[in-house]
Each structure stands twice: as structure tokens, then as C-alpha cells.
């Protein structure tokens, strides 16, 4: 991998991780269209350590409050308030993607990165996102999350193992469908991603400098470090922007963007401009 590619992919990761447009698909598409190969699933997973560190920094007051409540609740049943339960929702909701990620690791690193599939999924789940925005009642506030919400949003997060779905897109769609308001669904989506994405990134460190499928290029340890730091800085700014945006805007702009990008990639692959694998 060239240094230019490492920097570009770090920027792409930071810009797209928290938007419901699939950062993994954007890394795959950017690598294929501009650099002629695939940076690989391990690069995606490790660079996400940067964006999830941005979540840790941005939401540290919330995260530290949940951790204190969780440990206090473990010691004292009388201290088991809403924050204690919310911490459990995050923990339990993170389990499904970890299980599915391990079970389907080889498919995630290979067949699931086919550009035909990624483009199709971008379009299909744009329609899912649009339906959730249009028909979700959006009546439930920040203190009304339940274990059912955490588990169902956690299951929706599993779909993001296929590039094109979008982890945030899947969880936000599920949250809206369950009746959560848009800001609540987005904030819980960020928290829900932390355990699984951090675990995935750390687990993939051993693979990031080794190609695991034909056509994949490898990054040096220094390159992946720089890309991750760039993703952290850009991701932090993206979080702040998105939280302000969803307060007063619908998410239809992301729906149209996904559809147009998916159609563009399908045309490019079908015409032979870029290889699907």
C-alpha cells in the first residue's frame, strides 16, 4: 500500500464510519476505483479503532457514567437504576455481531467484498433506511430504551458484516422502526458499536499486514497507525456534525446518496471499468 492510499483510506474511514452509508463499502470502493485493488477486511477493522476511539472521547462522560453504574449495580442490587440497565443493553446487544463475525469470518473477508454484492446492498438497505424514516413513529425518548431495543438493534448491527449495509444504518433503521426518536437511535448506535468494533479491530491486528484473499494489498504497521489516527480526528468531527444534523433533518439525503452510489458502482462493474473482486 502506498502512503497516499493509506492517508486517503484513513480520511474515508473517518468521514463515513458514523454516517448510514457504510464505511466498509466506501473503503472497498475507494480501493478498487482509485488504487486497483482491495485494502482488505482487516484494514477496515483496524482503522475502525480510530473512529471508535473518537466515540470514546466524544461520549466519555456518558460511557464513564454507564461503567460506574454497571459496576455499582453488580455490587449492590439497590443501585440498579436505568444507567445500569442501559449498560447491559449495550453489552448484550454487542454479542450477536461478535458471534456472527467469528462464524462467517472467511466469507466476510472474501465473497462478501464482491462489488456487485456491495452495490446491490447499498441500494436495498437505502430503501430500508427510507422506510424506517418514513414509517417509524419516533415517539420514544432517551429514557425509554429497553432490553428488547438493545437486542434487536444488536441483531441489526450484524448485517453490517456485509459491506454496503452500514452498521449505523442498520442500527438506526432498527431504532426508528422500534419507535425511538432519531437522536436517541443515533446515540445508542454509537454506544452499541463500541464493544464489538473495538474487539474486532484488536482481533484483526494480526491480519492487517498479511493478505487473506486474492487481490488484497497490505499496509505496513506505520501506515495503518497513521490511517487510524486520521480516522480518529476526522471521525470525531463527523460525530459532532451528525448529532447536530439529525436533530433537525431527516436522513433521506443518505438514502439518495446510497442509491446513486450503488447504481454508479453497478454500471462501472458491469461495463468492466473495475473488477468486482
Contiguous runs where pLDDT drops below 50 for at least 5 residues: none
Q: What structural class results from the helix and strand content?
A: mainly alpha
Strand content: under 5%
Helix content: over 70%
Looking at the chains present, what oligomeric state does this protein adopt? single chain
How many helix segments? Answer: 12
Number of strands: 0
Give the overall shape: globular
The SSE order reads HHHHHHHHHHHH
Distance between the termini: 18 Å
Describe the structure using short key phrases.
single chain; 277 residues; mainly alpha; 12 helices; 0% strand
Overview of the molecule:
The protein has one domain. It is 73% helix and 0% strand. The mean pLDDT is 88.
Compose a concise summary of this entry.
The chain is an all-alpha fold and 277 residues long.
Furnish the topology, listing elements before pairings.
Blueprint: H1 3-16, H2 23-35, H3 41-58, H4 60-75, H5 82-103, H6 105-109, H7 115-135, H8 147-158, H9 167-177, H10 182-204, H11 221-248, H12 252-270
Helix pairs in contact: 1-2, 1-11, 3-10, 3-11, 4-5, 5-8, 5-10, 7-9, 7-12, 8-9, 9-10
